[in-house]
């Protein structure tokens, strides 16, 4: 099974939200990483076939997804960034409804719904109306809904936004269990979401793919470019103007900072183990998102 | 549980639809009440047994020629001896003034009917003498094939008239309330993206929504027609017999061969079919708009324009006209007209050019069928192609 | 002093938003088009318009302007509070310094000013047309003289009278709309509610039944020339009828304003929950 995008482009008027994207997805988890406004959602909507591209195509095994239509959607599980729901439905009713739309047999759906509710930890709340759910609970319903038809292509747009740390870890575990023999595309602007589970990472910036590589390769490429240092306040200000700064913690002895740089930034800097976050910072520049 | 049932549930589970419907039904009943005076009801009922005698008298050549000779100015005393003794037998049980008034009424019915029969003959004669245009041929055909006019003693006027304007508006209002959110609510609740990516979320959901809305509107139309029938039965009483449409004051001299009951049944049918068409137009607008607010407003304007064109504006100038002009045609073929039918079908409206003359109601049906199909196609297109903003 | 200008600013911002709403502009344009068709296109006038009081100006302001006013109130005013609640802005605003009652008051004030403004513009347009088309009203002759009105007003007086009656009625409608709008977060409800209210009022007005409600009808004010004539008991002479109608409407308006201003959070919550249940 191979999902491909060919020259996929989306313009909103003058603005180019997704620019000539060529990607290839096979089995495994793909992390779509980019800051807010990078075009992740736009790209994902085109991949799941709910947004007509300005230019370019999406194919599954060399067939256009618009041609596959129902067959494609049968394989698809999608969780939108801004998940919709019916306030008057209970969680169970809602999932039953989606199961119906996905064409599941009622018996089979019943079982599946129970396991999924259990999996996302909502068994106790399944009789409650969605209008009374908290944001995190809604997202968990959203995850369950995407998994209902046991999709071969699972597309999740910022699935972890609004989840607490425990739920996040739980969610990551669910995903890594699922990743066998299916395509999972996961968009996020939070590096730690994809760090440990994504096999391949796509970095998206201003609608363009800037890197598309395996996790290891990305980390490998960063070796020798990541530094830790303890500096004073004045030094930090100076460093900020010259280098890309990651985390900075105030300690008794000054600031403990992480610096991403091709050269050694200061005397006392020590090389550090690169993480995916450093890759992100390397490409998108510290905390300053202004010109992204 | 099927998708259709879920979609239907989504429409009818909106509480405000029912609250509005109940309020409006109540006021409908209130405004209709007291619209027929009790005395006129009394006379109608009392004279019901002599219906056949009155008709027979007007068609009696001796009586009618006598009335025509007198230039339609006859008194009760003059005409009484000529009429069937059955009438006197029925009326004599009433005393005094009531007796007098009763006879006056009978005389009026007879004279009136003679006038109408006479006028129809004159119309036919005039048509035969006039140039042989498609319109004249059409009218002549209608007038000669009309059933015999009867005295206007039934209550069909009031029954048919309720469908003229208020009832279609009430039905339309509830339909708009129920269906204006069918698609736009999916957009506002941000379910659109999820629906579109489900296997059955496109075609099946689309058809389920369409048929659920159609069912809802049909039920609405039927419920309000039933309510209307109950109210009419209470206020006016049930007509005791069927009668040709031309016997009614409303449709006097209109080129139509229908009977009152046929028109009434067709009105109900038109009301249901029109309701479905209206709901599909609303769905179409709903699939374009991002909020039920807008789609309600715009579909309301769509319906209102049809209403104004075919009713309010025309009322002052062409009341009772049976020729569809270019000016009145937009109103005649509107969805409102299909829901009401009183104007186009009851008046037997006809559209004529130099080459042909056809009943306007056919045009109404054709136009509305086209609207129906276009609405479905556009709705499908917009539901599936609308950019998902979520 | 500062507070006051602050409030005025708030009102100005709201009012500008209402006046520049695309529906206001579109409906005003439609009204202008329609009026000019009546004044300048004879065939349209003869085929489509029923002349009232032998004067086009009276016809337009007493007969057709209310329709446009109602539409504008319906579509522009009904979202005033409901939209904010739907977008969750109310919670945010209520925590601001000028939140709660002051914020609501500014919206009510802006909406009322809007009501007055649209009537004013409507009258001005009709007046302009009437001057341009050289069919002006003779200001000194008695309005509806041939119909023997109970109140003898000159045309000029009647003109002022109609203006105030229509302004008054529009403001009442605005307040009613705001009231419904402040109690829901579904925009459809104020829209449909007011549409239904106006529809029922119109039905009562045109059928003349029930007589009591016919007299206390908003269309008595929207079509002010009716007020020049006497009514049957219990309303009686024209002046008395007028006083009764106005006082009833004023009482209603005050109550509605109060309820709108104090659609406080508790009430909001309650209606919200109800609505959540009814909305899918
Ligand atoms: N419907 C739209 N109309 C106009 N611009 C849009 C629309 N949707 C997204 N954009 C623009 O496209 C860019 C990408 O948006 P999006 O895909 O939502 O980013 P992300 O999901 O990565 O945060 C943004 O700059 C956004 O402003
Ligand atoms: Mg996004």
Mean pLDDT of chain B: 88
* Main beta sheet of chain A: 6 strands, mixed
The CATH topology assignment of the largest domain in chain A is: Rossmann fold
The succession of helices and strands of chain B, N to C, reads: HHHHHHHHHHHHHHHHHHHEEH
State the fourth-level CATH superfamily of the largest domain in chain A: P-loop containing nucleotide triphosphate hydrolases
Quaternary state reads heterotrimer
Order of strands across the widest beta sheet of chain A? 6-7-8-3-9-10
Shape of chain B: elongated
Structure description:
The complex is a heterotrimer of chains A (292), B (390) and C (280). With 292 residues, chain A is an alpha/beta fold. Chain A has helices at 40-47, 65-68, 70-75, 91-101, 106-119, 135-147, 165-178, 191-195, 215-222, 233-242, 276-284; strands at residues 3-12, 15-25, 28-33, 55-60, 63-64, 76-79, 153-157, 183-188, 200-205, 208-214, 226-231, 244-251, 254-260, 270-271. Chain A folds into two domains: 3-220, Rossmann fold, CATH 3.40.50.300; 222-284, Alpha-Beta Plaits, CATH 3.30.70. Chain A is 35% helix and 29% strand. In chain A, the strands form three sheets. A six-stranded mixed β-sheet of chain A has the order 6-7-8-3-9-10, with helices on both faces. A four-stranded antiparallel β-sheet of chain A has the order 2-1-4-5. A four-stranded antiparallel β-sheet of chain A has the order 12-13-11-14. In chain A, β9 (200-205) and β10 (208-214) form a beta hairpin. Residues 287-292 of chain A have low confidence and may be disordered. A two-stranded antiparallel sheet of chain B has the order 1-2. Chain B is mostly helical and 390 residues long. In chain B, a hairpin with a 4-residue loop joins β1 (350-352) and β2 (357-359). Chain C is globular and about 60 Å long. Chain A binds chain C through residues 86-89, 129, 131, and chain C through 276-280. The structure holds adenosine-5'-diphosphate and magnesium ion (MG). The site of magnesium ion has 4 residues of chain A, from α1.
């Amino acid at each position: 099974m191979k999902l491909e995008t060919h020259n996929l482009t989306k313009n909103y008027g003058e603005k180019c939200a997704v620019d000539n994207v060529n990607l290839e997805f096979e089995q495994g988890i793909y992390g779509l990483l980019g800051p807010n406004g990078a075009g992740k959602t736009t790209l994902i909507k085109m991949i799941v076939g709910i947004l007509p591209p300005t230019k370019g195509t999406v194919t599954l095994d060399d067939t256009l997804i618009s041609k596959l239509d129902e067959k494609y959607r049968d394989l698809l599980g999608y969780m939108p960034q801004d998940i919709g729901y019916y306030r008057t439905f209970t969680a169970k009713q809602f999932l039953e409804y989606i199961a119906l739309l996905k064409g599941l047999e009622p018996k089979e759906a019943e079982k599946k719904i129970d396991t999924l509710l259990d999996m996302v930890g909502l068994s106790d709340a399944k009789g409650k109306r969605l209008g009374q759910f908290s944001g995190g609970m809604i997202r968990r319903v959203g995850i369950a809904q995407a998994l209902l038809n046991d999709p071969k292509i699972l597309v999740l747009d910022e699935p972890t936004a609004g989840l607490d740390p425990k739920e996040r870890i739980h969610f990551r575990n669910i995903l890594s269990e699922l990743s066998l023999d299916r395509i999972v595309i996961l968009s996020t602007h939070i590096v730690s979401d994809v760090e440990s589970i994504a096999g391949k990472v796509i970095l998206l910036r201003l609608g363009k793919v800037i890197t598309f590589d395996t996790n290891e390769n990305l980390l490998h490429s960063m070796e020798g470019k990541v530094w830790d240092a303890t500096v004073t306040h004045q030094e930090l200000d100076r460093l900020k103007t010259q280098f890309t700064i990651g985390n900075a913690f105030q300690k008794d002895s000054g600031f403990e900072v992480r610096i991403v740089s091709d050269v050694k930034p200061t005397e006392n800097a020590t090389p550090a183990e690169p993480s995916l976050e450093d890759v992100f910072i390397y490409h998108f520049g510290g905390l300053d998102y202004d010109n992204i | 549980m099927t998708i259709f049932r879920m979609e239907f549930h989504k429409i009818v589970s909106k509480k405000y639809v029912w609250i509005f419907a109940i309020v409006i039904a109540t006021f409908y009943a209130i405004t209709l009440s007291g619209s027929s005076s009790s005395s006129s009801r009394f006379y109608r009922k009392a004279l019901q047994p002599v219906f056949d005698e009155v008709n027979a008298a007007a068609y009696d050549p001796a009586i009618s020629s006598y009335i025509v000779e007198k230039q339609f100015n006859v008194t009760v005393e003059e005409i009484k001896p000529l009429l069937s003794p059955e009438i006197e037998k029925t009326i004599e049980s009433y005393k005094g003034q009531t007796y007098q008034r009763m006879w006056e009424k009978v005389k009026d019915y007879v004279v009136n009917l003679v006038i109408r029969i006479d006028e129809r003959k004159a119309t036919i004669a005039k048509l035969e003498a006039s140039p042989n245009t498609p319109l004249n041929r059409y009218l002549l055909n209608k007038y000669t094939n009309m059933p015999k006019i009867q005295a206007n003693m039934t209550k069909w006027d009031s029954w048919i008239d309720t469908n003229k304007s208020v009832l279609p508006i009430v039905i339309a209002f509830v339909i708009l309330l129920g269906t204006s959110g069918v698609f736009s609510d999916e957009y506002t609740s941000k379910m659109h993206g999820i629906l579109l990516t489900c296997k059955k979320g496109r075609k099946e959901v689309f058809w389920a929504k369409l048929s659920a809305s159609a069912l809802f509107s049909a039920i609405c139309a039927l419920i309000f027609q039933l309510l209307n029938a109950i109210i009419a039965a209470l206020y006016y009483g049930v007509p005791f017999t069927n009668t040709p449409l031309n016997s009614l004051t409303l449709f006097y001299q209109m080129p139509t061969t229908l009977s009152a009951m046929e028109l009434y049944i067709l009105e109900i049918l038109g009301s249901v079919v029109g309701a479905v068409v209206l709901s599909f137009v609303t769905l179409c607008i709903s699939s374009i708009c991002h909020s039920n607010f807008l789609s309600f407003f715009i579909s309301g304007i769509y319906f209102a324009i049809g209403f104004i064109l075919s009713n309010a504006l025309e009322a002052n100038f062409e009341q009772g006209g049976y020729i569809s002009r270019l000016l009145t045609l937009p109103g005649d073929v509107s969805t409102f007209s299909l829901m009401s039918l009183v104007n186009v079908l009851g008046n037997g409206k006809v559209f004529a050019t130099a080459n042909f003359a056809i009943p306007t109601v056919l045009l109404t049906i054709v136009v509305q069928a086209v609207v129906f199909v276009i609405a479905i196609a556009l709705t499908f297109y917009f539901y599936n192609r609308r950019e998902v903003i979520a | 002093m500062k507070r006051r200008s602050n409030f005025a600013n708030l009102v100005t911002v709201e009012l500008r938003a209402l006046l520049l709403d695309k529906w206001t502009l579109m409906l005003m344009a439609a009204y202008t088009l329609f009026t000019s068709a009546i004044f300048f296109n004879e065939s349209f006038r003869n085929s489509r318009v029923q002349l009232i009081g032998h004067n086009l100006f009276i016809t337009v302001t007493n007969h057709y302007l209310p329709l446009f006013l109602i539409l504008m109130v319906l579509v522009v005013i009904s979202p005033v509070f409901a939209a904010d609640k739907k977008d969750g802005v109310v919670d945010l605003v209520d925590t601001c310094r000028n939140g709660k009652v002051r914020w609501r008051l500014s919206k009510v004030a802006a909406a009322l000013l809007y009501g007055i403004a649209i009537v004013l513009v409507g009258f001005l347009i009709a007046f302009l047309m009437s001057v341009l088309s050289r069919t002006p009203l003779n200001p000194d002759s008695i309005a509806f003289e041939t119909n023997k009105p109970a109140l003898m007003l000159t045309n000029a007086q009647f003109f002022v009278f109609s203006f105030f009656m229509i302004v008054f009625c529009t403001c009442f409608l605005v307040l009613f709309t705001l009231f419904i709008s402040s109690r829901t977060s579904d925009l459809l409800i104020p829209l449909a509610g007011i549409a239904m209210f106006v529809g029922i009022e119109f039905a009562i007005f045109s059928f003349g039944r029930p007589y009591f409600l016919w007299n206390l009808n908003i269309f008595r004010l929207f079509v002010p020339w009716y007020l020049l004539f006497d009514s049957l008991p219990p309303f009686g002479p024209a002046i008395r009828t007028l006083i009764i109608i106005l006082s009833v409407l004023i009482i209603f308006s005050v109550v509605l304003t109060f309820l709108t201003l104090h659609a406080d959070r508790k009430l909001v919550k309650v209606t919200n929950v109800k609505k959540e249940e009814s909305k899918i």
